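Quarterly update, task 2.4: coenzyme A-bound model.
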Amino acid sequence: MNGLKLLSTGRALPRQAFSNDSMRQFVDTSDEWIASRTGINQRYFCGEDESTTSLAIDAARMALERSGMAPDDIGCVLVATSSGEYAMPSTACLVHAALGLPEDIPAMDVGAACAGFLFAMEAARGLLVTSGRRCALIIGAEQMSSVLDMSDRNTCVLFGDGAGAAIFELVPDAEYTSIQGVRGSDAIRVGGPCRAQKMAMDGQAVFRFAVSALPQCVNDLLQKASMTTDDVDWVICHQANVRIIDSSIRRLKMPDEKFYKNLDRYANTSAASIPIVLDEMNEKGLLKPNQRIILVGFGAGLTWAGAMLRI
Ligand code: COA
């Protein structure tokens, strides 16, 4: 089966971090409430000269440079985002221009919220088959601060801005398993008439969805590939809430050490969280050749998706 092989990663964060205490300038909250309910200690928000576009370009440039590939090797550019700077052009087209990528390739945004990076990986597998080029540039980039209601303490403390990028190569006969799905619901939503409304969320409904979708995704991937949790080196999941991850660890009866967590420093960066984790783990030398990793995303839609691959 055609599978994706991870060649390189990159990430970009806004300059300014906001501690939990500093969120009190917006809403009635406390470090104790946020940390104990979510595991988040701080998040980054874009300044005036930063945006989904600038973060996506910086992360993508880093991943491309580290891959050793030429722009002409890139067969598609997909940006998973729910907070693109423009309705059009897509963020992907702006990345395409900034990096000087070939004209005859598709570049588009993928809207699947926090599962977007995984949906984009699946789309890239299909696009590369017909492209004649080897690699996909896949980015998760979000300026969640642009869609947050900064007067709603139920949501504004949970999210952050950031971008992660990866270059994947399409490899015939690679070991690769993937699944995707949707439980249609507007439990998290942004927009409405004239795209005017900021985020609204039924937090407890989303929590219930997440604690079932994450472990189910891992189990379904393992079942599809006829493997067990012992065969997996890392589970890299969407970083929404540490209680969601810890509940899944208990349900799966897996060792805590196989789950990488960094949401304490970034909060929920939606589609960017998985590639940001990948880049941090790469930087720390935690991702080693031949390891088998599981990626799991879940979020608004309600969407869920997973992929298991050897790196
Ligand atoms: N600071 C202080 N108090 C807050 C608060 C904040 N930032 N946000 C909400 N509260 C209050 C509420 O007003 C409510 O008060 P009330 O009981 O007086 O009405 C209370 O805290 C709710 O507490 P509780 O029900 O115990 O919260 P919770 O344990 O359900 O946690 C979430 C709330 C949002 C953290 C949790 O439901 C969650 O993580 N959901 C998933 C959200 C998510 O991850 N979304 C993205 C998925 S990709």
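Highlight for this quarter: The first strand starts at residue 3 and ends at 12.
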